[in-house]
Amino acid sequence: MEILGIDIGGSGIKGAPVNVKTGELLAPRHRIATPQPSKPKAVAEVVGEVAKFFNWQGPIGAGFPAVIQHGVARTAANIHKSWINTDAMQLFGKATGCPVTVVNDADAAGMAEMVFGAGKGRKGVVLLVTIGTGLGTSVFVDGLLLPNTEFGHIEIDCEDAELRASDAARKEHELSWQKWASRLDTYLLRLEALIWPDLIILGGGVSKNHKKFIPRLTVQAEVVPAETLNEAGIIGAAIAAASQN
Ligand code: BGC
What we know:
The chain is an alpha/beta fold. It has 2 domains: 116 residues, 2-Layer Sandwich (Nucleotidyltransferase, domain 5); 110 residues, ATPase, nucleotide binding domain (Nucleotidyltransferase, domain 5), CATH 3.30.420. It is built from 7 helices and 15 strands. Strands 1, 2, 3, 4, 5 and 8 form a 6-stranded mixed β-sheet that branches. Strand 2 and strand 3 form a beta hairpin. Helix 1 packs across helix 2. The longest helix is centred in the C-terminal third of the chain and has 19 residues. The chain is globular, with a radius of gyration of 17 Å. 48% of the residues are buried. The site of beta-D-glucopyranose has 15 residues, from helix 3.
């Protein structure tokens, strides 16, 4: 089955057709910068453009950087606030003329890792943290997703964890790998104390530099980099749509 996967992020909107049986991208991904301000109408237009680029007529899965309940966005940390309570599923459906399944972006990345990546066949509690502009999390118990965990926003030293330990924070504060790894470690230790994962998968663009920070982490859980890297969001969004179609 082929599904168009679209990963909507704070800086870019990327899409590619995915073979959901193998996890392969069937064409190079197409990326368009996220419009600023990232209001619903403008973002939906770009989602429509991505579908048009592939001449797409069929199911679409979209990962979105917010809590998504039954297609409706409920939060907006790194996207325009007017998304709150917007029916993303309906909006993207109109913009593309196709049925669209919308899920949280970290949940999508987690699904890709559980099916095709570092979490494949793993039982017990698996936590995936995507590290980018924000800190996104997804949690699986024996392969089953608990959707919309927003553990990127737990407080550390009276501050939103995302503002301390995301990749955006590393760049903004020009932190060395050592300093940033220590912040990430504090964050993961807190999460470990709360949900005791057996396996932690670290994803997002920064995971390609995993050798610079994973060896510095002190959590008890096994920590591994994501295997589907930059494509996790696209592949996972397509998997989510496949389960609806
Ligand atoms: C949002 C999450 C999202 C994460 C990664 C956070 O700021 O609250 O919903 O998964 O960023 O994009």
